[in-house]
Amino acid sequence: MATNPVTYDRHSYVINGERMFVNSASIHYFRMPKEEWRDVLMKAKMAGMNVIDTYFAWNVHEPEEGQWDFSGDNDCGAFIDLCAELDLLVMARPGPFICAEWDFGGFPWWLQEREPMTYRSLDANFLKYVDRYFDKLIPILRERQISKGGNVILVQVENEYGYLYDDETAHDYMVYLRDGMINRGIDVPLITCVGGVEGTIEGANFWSNADEHFEKLVTKQPNYPKIVTEFWTGWFEHWGAPAATHKTANLYERRMMETLQAGFTGISHYMFYGGTNFGSYGGRTIANSDIFMVTSYDYDATLSEYGRSNEKYAAAKTISLFSLAMQKMLLEADPITTHDVKLSKNCSIRGRQNGEQKLWFVESLKEERETFHVTLSSGRTIPITVKPGQIMPLVDRLNVWDGLQFTTNTFISGNEEMDGVHTIIISHDRGQRSFVQLEANEAMTIQEQLTLRHKVSADGRSVQFDFHHFEQPQVVHITVGGKTLRLVVINADVAEHTWRIDKGQYAIGYEEVEIRPDGSLYGVRTLTNIKPMLLGFGKADLLADAFVAEPFSLDYPTFNNWTTETLSFDQIEKTKVEEAVTFSKCGHPFGYLLYEYSIPNEQAAASEIILPALGDTARVYLNGVEQLLITQVGAASIPVQLASGDNKLQILIQHMGSLNFSPFQGEVKGLSGAIYRDGATIDMRSNWQLPAELGAATVQLDEVVDIAESTLLTRTFTKDSAFNKAVIVGGIGGTLIINGKTVEMPRYEEWFHYHVVDISDYLVDGENTITMSIFKTPLYRLDIHLYHTDHALTEVTMTPIATPQQINNTLAVNDTSSVSPTWFRTTFAKPAIAANCKPGFKLRLNGLSKGRLLLNGIDLGRYWQVGPQEDYKVPVSWLRDENELILFDETGKQPTAIQFVYDRQSTNVWGEIK
Questions:
Q1: Facing residues of 673 across strands?
Q2: Does 230 participate in catalysis according to the annotation?
Q3: Where is the Beta-galactosidase 1-like first all-beta domain (predicted)?
């Protein structure tokens, strides 16, 4: 029987007999056009990534039941094949649940309308559909496994199931999925993340506390490799929140170094490239009622939404190239004590050792950059310069080859043979100094006449260099026993523009470089005053005639001759229903639904309309006049002033994305069930009482409250006899007692931070006493909605809002009188794009409100100009010579100020590197 090409032990994975540090880039094929795959994958490869990690989105491949799509942008097999062409391995994560801030966690919308089922469970109804999905997807992975000559090395079972259940509770479901993969021919190692099952290797998902996560894995699976299956490079964003830019490049570098010093031998960067939630596939997540994903999934990742590198990309490249350069030592290293190491004050040190080779991690505790000194057990004292909060490596007697050891106090980004010469690339910040020591079994010869500071021992078997990291790379050749070692010394700015094209092939000093399909090099602008290098290409090291790009200007498309079509509530076709139903029951995956109610009223009066089950933002109109935009969902109320006679209440709801992660997937989207007039709402955040033993003080839950979690608070409220139903919605604590009776909440999860609970059976007319545990403050919402079942609104119609075939009305420029939902249409010509230019287009929607974007019939996603997203990606590959752009704006804001914008590197042309 043939040996599986993928094996492992407690240290690392072994691929085809060689240990490999897993530098994995999370890149989702379904979040960008197929035409962009190569560029993004090449940039991952050139940053030192050797594995691509991707989810597979069930709802993309089966958008309607039985209608499978593995073509074009959804051709996941072609994506894996392209990875293989670029010599990139694949970590496949087929789900069926993927989370990914993707609508419904990857489940298809229509699943909600089949026979009742419990998602992510050992429910026969649910598993019937999972099996059909696996029958389609798993063969695509099976035939591309490395065991069959392909490049898939790991396959994940489910995803983060441990956030819901412990392993014992999850066991049978996880076994079913595991066996389903094995029985369909998966023979590479199976992995899990956050939760596991026997026969799989568990990874950890985190951003910080690497030691804690490592120790948990050691305790659980001591003899298996330890990798970070999701190392969070940034974070997702949602409408109305601040930009998620809190994970800086410097902190990102530090966290990666913490994973190395903890002992992890693999990092999967989630996300390496985030991409875009095209097609309104952005999801909704936990922690509040209105956390709806923005259309961009940029994630503040290492590559921007437009595929451009940034400071985090440079940090990822620094650490990934370092881990590759050190992998022979790192992958069999164990932690070592530091009791025989002496070091300066205000720094700390940890180490790992493999035989005589050691790697030390030196951390600064100072508030400014400082040079510390470390005296090793050998008696050598080495300076090391560290920035505040930084962890710098101290490479201690790395074995270059038998008889030659290498020591340095900074990062190395290359350690391999190039052009037949073993080459080590050394980098440090511009203007800093690095210490390098070579120790050999015989005398060494420096080939150059050096002006830089160096010291050779009396016997010629040790040489120390004191390098200064200039703008210009320095190259030194040392001969030892007939072999040559080449040292290339660069600064961090040059390192940021140094590319590992392939094993033993580096381009140094290029802003961007990639390999075209024919294998030739293509690049953008070399750094000013730097003579670029090509190492390992069989060419001269120093190239004075390398390609230098000339900036050029791009035409900006302009939008003229807008036409419009207003959504007329009175003219659209309506379907009468007994009560409101959800988007899925209407067969409407995304977009808008209009619910219309007739409310007869004898005389003008104020009323409060209660919506006990609302899943999305809702724009409310009474008699054609907008009343409010509801953003806090779950349950809601609408204060209105009813006129005498017949009133029309219209509720326009946009599908804002289904929960991508929670114990409550499959929630209401749109409205469900009856709504009620003449209700009431009580804001329950004020006037809670601490227990007597804590002083019986009054507590306001909309303020910061310094009391222990789970403390029981009490307050009273009054229920009028006019109401027989009530729901409480918002930040409900895990213990909820009303009038001495504990409210049953069988699916309560405290970390969800948001619940809707029917408390009708616990209330009495008059005064009620409620006791609740506290888990966080301030609470942004805790309401009780009261209503009576006799006051249900029974005359209701529903209408899916589709884009009209004709949008022909001429736009009256500067006419701001319209506040009705309106379609706007324009056409524009594709701007001239040079063949060697790679622009990124985006729409900046100045002056608009909230709505949806369509380009040439393709859904570009939702927009909502409340931030943090301002610009919306328009893929170049989706442009035609003549293009149609349609906007649906909920308040009819005119698009006369919107504009095309190019991303920051669009004005550089690419050319061949000679």
A1: 580
A2: yes
A3: 581-682
Return d(Cα 327, Cα 163) in angstroms, integer: 32
Among 62, 158, 160, 514, which one carries the catalytic annotation?
160
Sequential DSSP letters for 707-764: S-TT-EEEEEEEE-TT--EEEEEES--S-EEETTEEPP-TT--GGG--EEEE-GGG--
Give the three-class secondary structure for 405: strand
Query: For strand 357-364 and strand 347-354, is the pairing parallel, antiparallel, or unpaired?
Result: antiparallel
> How sure is the predictor about 893, in pLDDT bands with cuts at 50, 70 and 90?
very high
β-strand pairing of 782-787 with 725-730: antiparallel
**What's the residue count for the chain?**
914
pTM exceeds cut of 0.90? yes
Longest dimension (CA), the chain: 108
74 phi and psi angles, rounded to 5 deg: -100, 10
pLDDT score at 540: 47
What crossing angle do the helices spanning 249-262 and 311-325 adopt, rounded to 10°?
Answer: 20
Taking the C-alpha atoms of residue 666 and residue 521, their distance in angstroms, rounded to an integer, is: 49
* Mean pLDDT along residues 558-575: 90
406 confidence band (pLDDT: 50, 70, 90): very high
Nearest-CA neighbor of 170 among 180, 160, 184?
Answer: 160
Closest CA to 54 of 68, 66, 67, 40: 40
Catalytic residue among 62, 101, 202, 230: 230
pLDDT at 525 over 90: no
C-beta neighbour count of 806 within 10 angstroms: 9
Which helix (H) or strand (E) segment is 178 a member of? helix 167-183
Where b means 16+ CB within 10 Å and e means fewer, 617-629 reads: bbbbbbbeebbee
DSSP-derived secondary structure letter, 2: P
For the chain, the first-to-last Cα distance in angstroms comes to: 48
Tokens of 106: 């990857």
- 301 burial type by CB count under 10 A (0-12 exposed, 13-18 middle, 19+ buried): buried
Tokens of 836: 């060697």
DSSP secondary structure letter of residue 695: T
Q: Is 795 a catalytic residue?
A: no
618 contacts 636 by C-beta, under 8 angstroms: yes
Task: Kindly tell me the burial class for residue 387, based on how many C-beta atoms sit within 10 Å of its own C-beta (0-12, 13-18, 19 or more).
Answer: middle
701, 688 in Cβ contact below 8 A?
Answer: yes
Q: Which helix or strand (DSSP H or E) is residue 416 part of?
A: strand 411-418
pLDDT greater at residue 765 or residue 558? 765
Per-residue pLDDT, averaged over 721-745, amounts to 96
List the beta strands (DSSP E) in 120-224: 152-156, 190-193, 201-206
Torsion of CA 495, 501, 505, 511, to 10 degrees: -40
Amino acid at 62: E
For the segment 300-345, what is each residue's pLDDT rounded down to a tens digit? 999 999 999 999 999 999 999 999 999 999 999 999 988 889 999 9
Compute how many other C-beta atoms are within 10 angstroms of the C-beta atom of residue 420: 9
Which domains does the chain possess? 6-302 (3.20.20.80), 327-535 (2.102.20.10), 568-679+795-800 (2.60.120.260), 682-787 (2.60.120.260), 821-911 (2.60.120.260)
Residue range 703-714: average pLDDT? 91
| Residue pLDDT, tens place only, 32-49 | 999 999 999 999 999 999
User: 544 pLDDT band (50/70/90 cuts)?
Assistant: very low
Least Cα distance to 322 among 151, 491, 495, 171 occurs for 495
356 burial via Cβ count (<10 Å: 0-12, 13-18, 19+): exposed
CA distance 398 to 817: 74
> Quick one: tokens of 63?
């958008």
Cα–Cα distance, 369 to 614 (Å, whole number): 54
Cβ atoms of 656 and 631 within 8 Å: the answer is: no
